[in-house]
Amino acid sequence: MNIKRVTLYHVSMNLLSPFVTSLETVQQRETIIVEVKDKDGATGWGEVVAFSSPWYTEETVKTSWHMLEDFLIPKVLAKEIHHPSDVTTLCSSIKRNYMAKAGLETAIWDLFAKKQGVSLSQLIGGTRSTIEVGVAVGARSIGDCLRQIEHYVQEGYRRIKIKIKPENDYEWLKEIRRHFPTISLMVDANSAYTLNDLQQLQALDEFQLLMIEQPLAADDIVDHAVLQKQMTTPICLDESIVTCEDARKAIELGSCKVINIKIGRVGGMNEAKKIHDLCQAKGIAVWCGGMLEMGISRAHNIALASLPHFTIPGDISASSRYWEEDIIIPEVVVKNGMVEVPKQAGIGVSIHRKRLEEITLYKRTYTAS
Ligand SMILES: O=C(O)CCC(=O)C1=CC=C[C@@H](O)[C@@H]1C(=O)O
Ligand SMILES: [Mg+2]
Which cofactor does the UniProt annotation name (predicted)? Predict the structure, then answer.
């Protein structure tokens, strides 16, 4: 493939309701949509999942734009690309900046799959035609949390994740289990604890949680190994795993029993698939994480989650869980807790151009010289 043009769209959409975590409340979702075009006019789409500020990882929308414009796009415009995994190699001299890389790399995966006339799921080795999905609840109060859980359970979501922090964990979970004793329930702490909170964390073992996601520091795998030995609830790592090498080390240390794979956090589909394959070989469970994303990234997530070792429902909720109107056609629909994996070429959805234009604040096209 010869990439001839890359267009970046700086977009912003309001979430239907605020998403509250231990670190930040997200209401306005700003991001970058990436469109790549090759010499034959074929198009691929990607989405950068960095947030407006660096609360989840160090990247932001602005740093991603800078990385794409000044370093990453010039690299893909300058060389012929034979396979999307070439992009990883091509960009490997640029340190980290995984979400910026993933936005561009996933657009090239979509383009490549379209040119091959196969779905992205098929291309990467997906084996499922439907995937089980769960939902993440980031609520302001326990009342709001219970109402949301009730609603999503009725909608058929197969697994509920709630955000916790040291100030409310035990009381909220007690209340949730009183109302919903048997639902598949997990929690995400976004690094709100340290090993000094060991007893408080051990107290959560009584709630039969599917897992606790990222209880300790975002860059830690050592303390998580200490914690996992002293908790029965499986630990799932999110922020700590940004490469397949991180995953290998965490598995060797015993830092987790589960890994949440997010394409954006690990720099693209290539690395995400490598982590999937490693976890499959090592018997570590995986599921596909979400980033409060718009439909393009959601469509890439669906392809990823169709791989055989994704046995736990991912954070891949319906477009309507977050958006008044998504930027893809058709939107992602959840029926009885399941999402269909598109069979059409590439990510298998069209771009809702009018909606994309409506939410675009600024766009710029870069061309090969
Ligand atoms: O996209 C979704 O539906 C869930 C998103 C979600 O839980 C998260 C997205 C981004 C940052 C975090 O707060 C959280 C996570 O850590 O997994
Ligand atoms: Mg998380």
Answer: a divalent metal cation
